[in-house]
Amino acid sequence: MEPIRWGVLSTAGIGIKAMIPALNAASNCELRAIASRQRDRVGIVAREFGIESAYGSYDELLADPEIDAVYNPLPNHLHVPVTIQALKAGKHVLCEKPLAMTEAEARHVAEAASTAGRQVAEAFMTCHHPQWVRARDLLREGRIGRPSAIQVLFSYSNTDPENVRNKPDIGGGGLYDIGCYAVRAGRWLFGSEPEAVCAVMDRDPAFGTDRLTSGVIRFPDGAHLNFTVATQSALAQQMTVLGAEGYMLFDAPFNCPPDHAARLVIDDGSDLLGKGRQVEILPPANQYQLQAEEFSRAIRSGETALNGPVDAICNAATTEALTRAAESGGWEPVTT
């Protein structure tokens, strides 16, 4: 199978820290090009990572006939327009989350992908991690009985006024940056779609972005997920899945280091001190590399990539409903 030839749009931190090394390590990928409006910067990054072509504009990269797929890690407000531009240029697109901030925007991307006959996926790398895959398998096997609740805590501290995550007019804020992970976790682990949501937000008085958001997402058959995400609090990541016959605890659920053997805890709930607890050790894995390889395989096989357009529409509809709920103070339906 011929490798997919990749280009990266921008020199964003997530690309340099995670996706560019992942693409270079992936067995079925060739990173051929990178583009940035900062011409000096893009040349430095290209040399650092051994990237053949460095372009001073996104248009130049998208016009390169040697590129099959692009990774879009631009600020949130550019995800939809640049992804659609790339699809029209005949490129497959792996776009950073959130792919879209509204259901309507996600549908526009899905329609563009269908028209172009190209793949598009939202970059939820967590779904590729062995810990997440194993947990979903265990749930399907009934290991902890019928799952009824998921609790998620995800926080970090960022008070830089120049950081894109702190600018509301370009899609900043905790819900869009990390709350979308909680939404995807519920949909992934429950294997169903949300029905309704409620939420509360605390907004930074200077930035205007939500710095603390908590929500409840109701799924079919009475199951629900509750989450808290924060952008000005201590670094923390926790996820618990509660079932009728036990519960599971995840190890660094969202940013598990690639050299860390994740420990998935399965407790039968027979003792508060954990006497009925078992720990499964999962092999170290680079979830970004696994994501790149899966997307490249989907391109070659023609199968729909994981976290494809339908998933993106459902995730966007849920985050949009959470925003409405925070404004209304009540429950809001999730409709797709």
Key structural traits:
336 residues, alpha/beta, nine-stranded mixed β-sheet, six-stranded parallel β-sheet, 27% strand, oxidoreductase, Gfo/Idh/MocA-like_OxRdtase_N
Shape: globular
Pairing-aware structural class of the strands and helices?
Answer: alpha/beta
Q: What low-confidence regions span 5 or more consecutive residues with pLDDT below 50?
A: none
Distance between the termini: 37 Å
**Number of DSSP strands?**
15
Largest sheet: 9 strands, mixed
Question: Could you state the order of secondary-structure elements as H and E?
Answer: EHEHEHEHEHEHEHEEEEEEEHHE
Helix run count: 9
The Rg value, from CA coordinates, equals: 20 Å
Overall mean pLDDT: 97
Q: How would you write the strand order of the largest sheet? A: 14-13-12-11-7-10-9-8-15
Helix content: 25-40%
What percentage of the residues does DSSP assign to strands (E)?
A: 25-35%
Domain GFO/IDH/MocA-like oxidoreductase: 133-247
GO molecular function: nucleotide binding; oxidoreductase activity
Keywords: Oxidoreductase
Organism: Paracoccus saliphilus
